[in-house]
Amino acid sequence: MKVIFRRPESLSVTPTHYCPGCTHGIIHRLIAEVIDELGLREKAVGIAPVGCSVLAFNYFNFDFQQAAHGRAPAVATGIKRARPDLIVFTYQGDGDLASIGMSEIIHAANRGEKFTVVFINNAIYGMTGGQMAPTTMPGQVTTTSPRGRDVNDVGYPIRMCELLSSLRTPAFIERVAVHNPKQVINARRALKQAFIYQRDRVCFTFVEFLSTCPTNWGMSPVQATRWLEENMMPYYPVKNFKTPEFTEGQNAD
Amino acid sequence: MKVIFRRPESLSVTPTHYCPGCTHGIIHRLIAEVIDELGLREKAVGIAPVGCSVLAFNYFNFDFQQAAHGRAPAVATGIKRARPDLIVFTYQGDGDLASIGMSEIIHAANRGEKFTVVFINNAIYGMTGGQMAPTTMPGQVTTTSPRGRDVNDVGYPIRMCELLSSLRTPAFIERVAVHNPKQVINARRALKQAFIYQRDRVCFTFVEFLSTCPTNWGMSPVQATRWLEENMMPYYPVKNFKTPEFTEGQNAD
Amino acid sequence: MQIETVFAGFGGQGVMLAGRVLAEVGMKLGKEVVWLPSYGPEMRGGTANCVVIIADEPIASPIIAHPRDTVVMNRPSLEKFCPAQKPGGYAIVNSSLINIRPDRDDIRVVEVPANEVAIEAGSGKAANMVMLGAYVGVTGIVPVEAVIEQIKEEFQAKAKLIPLNITCVERGYDIGRAAAGYCV
Amino acid sequence: MQIETVFAGFGGQGVMLAGRVLAEVGMKLGKEVVWLPSYGPEMRGGTANCVVIIADEPIASPIIAHPRDTVVMNRPSLEKFCPAQKPGGYAIVNSSLINIRPDRDDIRVVEVPANEVAIEAGSGKAANMVMLGAYVGVTGIVPVEAVIEQIKEEFQAKAKLIPLNITCVERGYDIGRAAAGYCV
Amino acid sequence: MGRKAKVTIEKNRCKGCELCVTYCPKQVLAMSREINDKGYFYAQVVNQDACIACRFCGMMCPDTAIEIAVEEPEKSEVKADG
Amino acid sequence: MGRKAKVTIEKNRCKGCELCVTYCPKQVLAMSREINDKGYFYAQVVNQDACIACRFCGMMCPDTAIEIAVEEPEKSEVKADG
Amino acid sequence: MAKILMKGNEAIAESAVRAGGLLYFGYPITPQSEIAEYLAHRMPEVGGVFLQIESEVAVANVLYGAAGAGARVWTSSSSPGISLMMEAVSYIAAAELPCVIVNIVRCGPGLGGILPSQGDYFQAVKGGGHGDYRCLVLAPCSVQEAVDLMPLAFDRADRYRNPVIVIGDGMIGQMMEPVEFTEQQFPPLPPKDWATTGCQGRKPNVINSLYLDPVEEEKLNFKLAAKYEQMKKNEVRYEKFRTDRELECLLVAYGTTARVCKTAIQRLDDEGIPTGLLRPITLFPFPEEAIYELSQRARFLLSVEMSTGQMVEDVRLAVGRSKPVYFYGRAGGMVPSPEEVVDAVKRYLAGGDR
Amino acid sequence: MAKILMKGNEAIAESAVRAGGLLYFGYPITPQSEIAEYLAHRMPEVGGVFLQIESEVAVANVLYGAAGAGARVWTSSSSPGISLMMEAVSYIAAAELPCVIVNIVRCGPGLGGILPSQGDYFQAVKGGGHGDYRCLVLAPCSVQEAVDLMPLAFDRADRYRNPVIVIGDGMIGQMMEPVEFTEQQFPPLPPKDWATTGCQGRKPNVINSLYLDPVEEEKLNFKLAAKYEQMKKNEVRYEKFRTDRELECLLVAYGTTARVCKTAIQRLDDEGIPTGLLRPITLFPFPEEAIYELSQRARFLLSVEMSTGQMVEDVRLAVGRSKPVYFYGRAGGMVPSPEEVVDAVKRYLAGGDR
Ligand SMILES: Cc1ncc(C[n+]2csc(CCOP(=O)(O)OP(=O)(O)O)c2C)c(N)n1
Ligand SMILES: Cc1ncc(C[n+]2csc(CCOP(=O)(O)OP(=O)(O)O)c2C)c(N)n1
Ligand code: SF4
Ligand code: SF4
Ligand code: SF4
Ligand code: SF4
Ligand code: SF4
Ligand code: SF4
Ligand SMILES: [Mg+2]
Ligand SMILES: [Mg+2]
C-alpha cells in the first residue's frame, strides 16, 4: 500500500487545542502541505497572531515568531527586510488583521513587502469568546452584538480582499474557503501560488480563508460549514482579486 | 459699496503660521465659509491633527480639540457618540491620516461615524520638515527618500478616496483641489455637501483636498500649484467617488 | 467556620453552574461566599473548575491551595484536586466516569454514579445536579430545600428544565444522605 | 576662557550657517566648541538663532542665558538677545535692517550695513558672511584666514559661491577691524 | 479510481467533528458510539470497500487524524491534491 | 460683471505668495517692491478699474488678506461662490 | 437592597452605569471581556453608549474626544491593551480630561498569560506614558469594593479633571461575590464649562495639550504637579488590619494579595507572631505616611506582590532606611498562598535570606 | 582621526552604523528626524536597511521581527512616539530580543512641545509597558558620549538579549559638537542560535512571549528578574565630578542638566561652597551604591532635572532617610540655568524652603 494522504512533514504531531471541527486545522495542514511541496520548510518563518491560533508555533515544524495582536505584518516586515531569503508568512484572524491590525496590513501590503498573509476570516473573535469582529455578518449575534450586528450603528462587514485590491501595489490577492473538499482544493492552489510568488520575490501575497468557528457561532462543525456557505459566501465572494500581470512565466512551479 | 468677499465669521483674525502660499490657509477659509453659510458655527467642533495644522484651533472661531497624531477620527467618534447633535469635523494631513492614522480613519469610515473628514493631501510631511508620506509621488525627493520615492521598495502612493470607497459603509467621498479658482469653487461645493450630509445625519463624509507644500517641495507657491496640477492630479483624480443614493431629496440646502 | 469546595470536571459538565448554585444558596443564607472560576488555558476543551467558599467570617484569601472538599466529575479532576484536600474533607466522586479512588485515607470519599442517575432522571446533562445534591446530602453544608429553591430561580427562563434538575438534586441528595453514615 | 556668541536673524538670513562656520573654525583651532540651534516654535517663518561657544576648557553647560556676544541681523533679534548679554560683550548689529541700537552702555556695539555690503559684493544673501567677518574683525576670536579656509570647504560643492562669500567675509572683517578701535 | 484504498483514522486524535463523515461521498465513514481518550465520539471506517480514495475525508479533517493509502503506487504520491 | 469693484489687500497680513496676482484674470494685482512688517513683498492693487469682481484673488489667498466690495448690493451678498 | 452574587467584571460594569458612566468604549481582552459583554446588553437599556472600537489605541483616543465633549466616559482592558493606550493617556492627563480606565491586570511582559498579576503597578503609578503626569489609581480587593470604588473613580476624575485608573487583577474580575449597590453622595461638581459642546453664547473652548512656548508648557507642568500634590493631600486611602499593636512584621499588599495576607496574618497570630497589614487602596497617591508611621511599630516590613518587585520601591521610599523592607513575590499567574507568606515572614524573622 | 563637528542626531546615526546597527526602522518626529534623514542617505551606502514605517506602533513590532531574525536593529523617536511602542517593547523584553531604541525626549505630557525635557525618566526606567521588565537605559550628556555609547548599547542589547534605551533630549540631538569615532572592542558575543533564520540543520526556533502555564510564565519572570540583577551588578555607569572632598551638597543629574550642574559647581566653588556631581550614565541600572556612598560625605543632595521630579525618587531610594534629598526641576522646555542651580543649592544650604 502506498500512502497518498498523511500529515505533512511541516506539521508537527502535537494535537492542536482547536475546538472540534474548527477549520483553523484544515488551513494549518494546507500551509504545511504547500511548504513541503515547494521544499521551503527549512527557510520558512511563520508568524502566529493573537487569536485562537496564537499557539500555531506549536503545530508547525519550522521557525516561528509570535506577534503582538494585529502586528504580524510589521513583524513579517522586520524579518523579511532583515533576511529577504527567508520565506515568511503571517497567520492572522479577522480580529487581528481587520480590526486592531488594519494599519499594519494595509501598509505592509502597500509597501509590497514580499511575504504571504494567511487571513482567517471566521466572522468573529474566537479566542476571547465570541465578540463581534469587523467581519461579523449583518444581524449576526455575538457577545458584543447581542441584538445582532446593527449596520446602522457599526457599519457593514469589512471585506479585506476588496479593500486591499483597491491599492495599487499589492499584486496577489485571493479569497478562498475550506468548508468542503472542492473549496479546500481551490484554497490549496491559491495558497501555493502565493508562496511561489513570494519565493520568486514577485509581490506581496494575500490569501483570505473563509473559516468556521463552530464554538462561538453556537453550532455543530457541519452546521457551521453550511452557515458559512449560506451566509458568508454571498457577501465574501471566493475568487482571485489580483494576480501580477507581469509574471505569467513564473506562475508554473 | 457692498462687501462680496471677506474673512468668514468662523475664521479668527489671528494670522496663521503657515508658510507663504501654503494652501492649508485656503482650505481653512473654505471650511469657515461653509460652516457660516450653513449656520453651524455654534454647534461646530473641529479636531486639529498633529501636522502643520496642529494649531488650527487658533484659526477658527468655534470649539476645537487637538488630537494625537493620526487619531482625530477616534477623537471625533468620541465627540459625536457623546453629542450626536454637534457638527464635528477632523482636519488631517496625509501623514496623519494615511500613515499613522490609517486604522482610525478606516474604522471610523466603516462604522459610518457621522462626522466630516477634511483630508489634506500635500504628498509630504510638512511640519516635521519634508519626509516622505504615503501619498508622496513616485520619484519625488523628500528628506527620507533622498533618491526619490522608489516604488519597488516602498510601494505606490496610497489613494485614500479609492481605498475608502471600496468599503460599503462610507457614503460620501470626494476628492477636490484648491490650486486654482475653479478648483476652489468645486472644492467648496463638495465640502458644503459633506457638512449637509453630516447635519442631516446621513452618513460618514470624506473630502480629500490636494494641497501644496511650497516649503518642502522646494518651490514657490505658484510653481507649487503647477506641480500639483501636473504631477498629483493625474494620479489623484479630482472627482466624486461616492454619494449616498438614498438621500437625493436631502441634497438641497 | 469556612468551607472550601472545588467543583471540577470537563468543560460542559456543568461544574461552574453547580458551584454557583451553592454559592448563591450560601449567600442567601447570610453567609460570606466567594465563587472563583479557573479561567486559565484549560478553559478551551480541557477541564473546568471553580472554588466555592462559604464562611461565617469575611473571607480573606479567595485563593485556596488546600480546599476542604472536592466534587470531581472526571478523572483528571480527581487526580488534580483530591491530593490537595485538607485531611478530614469530603470528596464526591462521579463514579460514572471515574474508575479510580483518591489515594488517601484521611478524607471521606463518596462515589456517586451521577451520569447514570441523571440519565435515568431524564438527561445525562444534569449529572452536575446529582453531584451537587450528593454533596449537600453528605455534608449538610446547606439545606437541600434552599438548593431546590435556587434551582427554580436559576432555571426561571427555561422552566421546563426545573423538574429534571430538582429530581437530580434530590436523587443525589438521597445518595449523599445514605452515604453520610458510612463515610463519616 | 569661554566666549559665547548668539547669531540671530530671520529664517533664511543664514545665521545658522554663520554660526556653524565659526564653530568649525574654533574646533580646527583645537578649541572646545558647541553649536546649539534653537529649534523651537520660531523655526517656521519667525526668527532663527544659534549659540556658538568657543572655550579652552571642556564646555559644561551649553545653555547660555547670558552670552558674551551677539550677531544680530534683524530687529526682533536685537530686542531679544542684546538685553541678556554679559557686560563687556560685543553686539554686531546689521544696520541695513535695524534702525535702533541696543539700549545698553556696558556692551560694545558695532553697526554693519551687511545687506548693502553684500549686495555690492554680488548678492544680498551673503550678508551673513559680512556679519561673520565683522564679528571676527572686531573680536579677533579666530584668525580671519581660518574663516576663509572654512568658507572654501563649506562651499566646496557650490564652488562658484566661494569668491562672493570670501569677499563678504573680508569686507566685513575690514569693517570690524576698523571699528575695533572705537568700539573697545 | 477503482483501486483498493485503505483509510486509517487515528482514534485518539479525532475530535469527533463529523466533517470527514459528512463530506465523504461514499459513506465510508461513520461516528462511533464510544468516546475516545479525549472524551469525543470519534470517526471510524465502516465501509472500507466503498472508498474511492478521493481524499476528501483527509482534506476536511482539521486534526490530521486521517491517513489514506492505495494499493498501487501512483505518480504523484504524497501530494494530496496539488 | 461690469459693475465697479474695490479690492482691498491688508498689507501686513499678506505673505507675498503671489497666488492672487497669478490667478487674477485681469492683472489687477501686482507684487510690491517693498517689504511689509513681516518682511514679505506684498501684493497690491495696481489696476483697480480692470477688476471684474470675480473674487478669484480672494479665493486663492491663503491668508484672508483680501476683501472685495462692489458698488451695487447683490442678491447673494457675503456668499463668496456658493 | 438584597445582596446579589455577581462576577467582578459585571459588577464593575453595573456600578459604573449606576455612577453615570454611560459612555463605554472598549476592545475585547481576557480576563475582562465580560465588562464589554455586560454593557453591550446594559447600555441600550439605560440610554447609554456601548461601542466596540477597533483597537485600544483608538479606544483611548475616543475617550479623549468624548471626555472633551463633557461626557462621563470609561473603558476597561488588560495589560497589553493598556500599554497601547499610553500615548493617549498622557494626552488625556495633559489636556486635563476626566475618564476612568479599568485595568484587569494579567501576566506580562509581552503576551504573557491571562492569569492574575500585579505587574502593571509601575505603569499605572509612575505613568507609563511620556512626560510628567500621574493618574489617580484605585485598587479594590473585593467585588464589593470594586463596586464601591467605581462611583468614586468617576467623581474624582471629574473633580480633578484627570484620568483615574481602577486596577484589579483576573481574580477580582472573574470572581463572584455578594454585592450591594448603594448610592454614594459626593459634593456637587463644578460645571464642565471647558468642554467642547458648541460655542453658543460663549467663547470657543479648546481641548489641547500643545504648548510651543516653554513658559506656557512649564506652567502646565507645574499646574499638573500641584494637582498631584493635592491628590496626595486629599485622596490617600488605605486599610489597616491588625495594626493596633506592636508588630513583628508589617505586611504591605494591595488587591488580591492583601486578602492572602489577611489569612496569613490570622495564621501567624495562631503562632504568636503579631503581624499587621497596610493595604493601600490608592496606589497613587501612595499611603506613604501611614506606612512610615506603622513601620515604626514593626521590626520589618514585607511587601507582598504578584510581581517581581514593584510596589516595594514605594514602600522603601516611604520607610527610608529606618526599617528593613523585604519583598515576597510570585509572578506569572502564580498567586502567593497564605502559607508562603507565613513562611516568608518567619524566614525574615529568623534573620533569613537577606 | 580628526574630530568633526556633528549634530547629535547625525552623530548617533553614524555611530550606530559603525557599530553594525545596519537595520533602522523609524517614523519622523521632532527633535530627532535628522537621524532618519541621515540614514536615508547613509544606509544604502553601507548596504544597510533604512525604512520609514507607518507608525511607531508598527516600528517597534518591525524591530521585534527583525531582531528575532537575528539582525542588529534599532530605531529612534521622541516621547509620544516612544509611548506608542510600549506594548511592543514589553513583548521584546519578554521574548528576550536585542534592539536599541533612541529616545530624544521632548516635553510632555501629551503633545507638549519639542523642546528638551527629561520627563520620560519613569517610562524608560520603570518600564512604561505592562508587566515586569526593564530596559538598560543609557543617558549621554554630550554628542561625543552619545557616539561612544551607541556601540555599547548594541553590544549590551545582544549580550543581555534585552532592549537598550539611549535617552537624550532635544539638546543632545540638535547640538553640534566635535566628535571622534573610535572603534570599541567588546568580548565576543554568543551566536544568535535562537533566531528564526530557517530551521535548516536544527530544531525549529520560536520567538515567543506567551506562557499559558503559570509555572512557565513565572520561570520567565524570575529569569528576567535575575537578568536585571545581573545588569545591576555589571552595568552601572556614572561620572563623578569634584566629589573627592567633603561636600556641602551632592548634585545628581544626567544628560544636559548634568552639564548645567558642572557649571554651577564651578560657580559654587568660586563662592567657597564645595559641591559635587554624581552623573548617572546608566539610569537603569541606577548607581545606587555610588550615590549612597557619596551622600555620606554631603550635607544634602539635590536632584536636578528637566521634569517635575522623577529621578529624585531613585535618589531617595538610594539614600534612604539618611540624608535630605531635595529636588530642583524646570519643565516644559525650560532648561535650568547654572545660576538657578547655584541659587537652589544656597537656598537649601540656608535651610531653605523645605
Ligand atoms: C492588545 C491586545 N488586545 C486584545 C487582546 C485580546 N485578544 C486576544 S485574541 C483576540 C481576538 C481574536 O480574534 P481573531 O483575530 O478573529 O482570531 P480567532 O480567535 O477568531 O481565530 C483578542 C481581542 C490582546 N491579546 N492584545
Ligand atoms: C506619535 C507621533 N509621531 C510623530 C509625530 C511627529 N509628527 C508631527 S507632524 C507629523 C507629520 C505631519 O505630516 P502631515 O500629516 O502630512 O501634515 P502636514 O504637516 O503635511 O500638513 C509627524 C510625523 C508626533 N507628533 N507624534
Ligand atoms: S473558538 Fe472558534 S476559532 Fe477558536 S478554536 Fe474554537 S472553533 Fe476555532
Ligand atoms: S511646511 Fe508645507 S504644509 Fe506646512 S505650512 Fe509650510 S507650506 Fe504649508
Ligand atoms: S478517501 Fe474519499 S471515499 Fe474514501 S473515506 Fe475518504 S472521503 Fe470517503
Ligand atoms: S474530520 Fe477528523 S477530527 Fe473530525 S471526525 Fe473526522 S477524523 Fe475526527
Ligand atoms: S476680483 Fe477678480 S479681477 Fe478683481 S482683483 Fe480679484 S481676481 Fe482680479
Ligand atoms: S494671495 Fe494673499 S498672501 Fe498671497 S500675495 Fe496675495 S494677498 Fe498676499
Ligand atoms: Mg476570528
Ligand atoms: Mg502632509
TrEMBL record, chains A, B:
Pfam families per the UniProt record, alphabetical: TPP_enzyme_C
> By what name is this protein known?
2-oxoglutarate oxidoreductase
GO BP annotations of the record are: cellular respiration
Q: Does the keyword Oxidoreductase apply?
A: yes
Taxonomy, superkingdom: Bacteria
Native organism is candidate division WOR-3 bacterium
Q: Which UniProt keywords apply?
A: Oxidoreductase
Molecular function (GO) terms for this protein are: oxidoreductase activity, acting on the aldehyde or oxo group of donors, iron-sulfur protein as acceptor; thiamine pyrophosphate binding
Residues annotated as domain Thiamine pyrophosphate enzyme TPP-binding: 58-199
Automatic annotation (TrEMBL), chains C, D:
Could you list this entry's UniProt keywords, alphabetically sorted.
Oxidoreductase
Q: Which InterPro entries match?
A: 2-oxoglutarate_synth_KorC, PorC_KorC, Pyrv/ketoisovalerate_OxRed_cat, Pyrv_flavodox_OxRed_cen
Domain Pyruvate/ketoisovalerate oxidoreductase catalytic residues, every copy: 11-174
Transmembrane segments annotated in the record for this chain: none
What GO MF annotations does this protein's record show? oxidoreductase activity, acting on the aldehyde or oxo group of donors, iron-sulfur protein as acceptor
Q: What is this protein called?
A: 2-oxoacid:ferredoxin oxidoreductase subunit gamma
From TrEMBL, chains E, F:
Q: Which GO terms describe its molecular function?
A: iron-sulfur cluster binding; metal ion binding
* Family matches, as InterPro entries: 4Fe4S_Fe-S-bd, 4Fe4S_Fe_S_CS, Polyferredoxin-like_ET
Gene3D superfamilies tied to this protein = 3.30.70.20
Name of protein: 4Fe-4S dicluster domain-containing protein
Which UniProt key words apply to this protein? Iron, Iron-sulfur, Metal-binding
User: Which is one Pfam family of this protein?
Assistant: Fer4_7
Domain named 4Fe-4S ferredoxin-type: residues: 5-34, 42-71
TrEMBL record, chains G, H:
Q: Give the Pyruvate flavodoxin/ferredoxin oxidoreductase pyrimidine binding domain ranges.
A: 16-185
What is the protein's species of origin?
Answer: candidate division WOR-3 bacterium
Q: Which domain of life is it from?
A: Bacteria
Keywords (A to Z) from UniProt: Oxidoreductase
Q: Domain (Pyruvate:ferredoxin oxidoreductase core): give its ranges.
A: 248-341
The record, for InterPro entries, names:
2-oxoacid_oxidoreductase, PFOR_II, Pyrv_Fd/Flavodoxin_OxRdtase_N, THDP-binding, Transketo_C/PFOR_II
Q: Where are the bilayer-spanning segments?
A: none
In terms of PANTHER family, this protein maps to: SUBUNIT OF PYRUVATE:FLAVODOXIN OXIDOREDUCTASE, SUBUNIT OF PYRUVATE:FLAVODOXIN OXIDOREDUCTASE-RELATED
Q: Determine if Glycoprotein is one of this entry's keywords.
A: no
Extract one GO molecular function annotation from the record.
oxidoreductase activity
Q: Which taxonomic lineage is given here?
A: Bacteria, Bacteria division WOR-3
Name any one Pfam family assigned in the record.
PFOR_II
Report what the protein is called: 3-methyl-2-oxobutanoate dehydrogenase subunit VorB
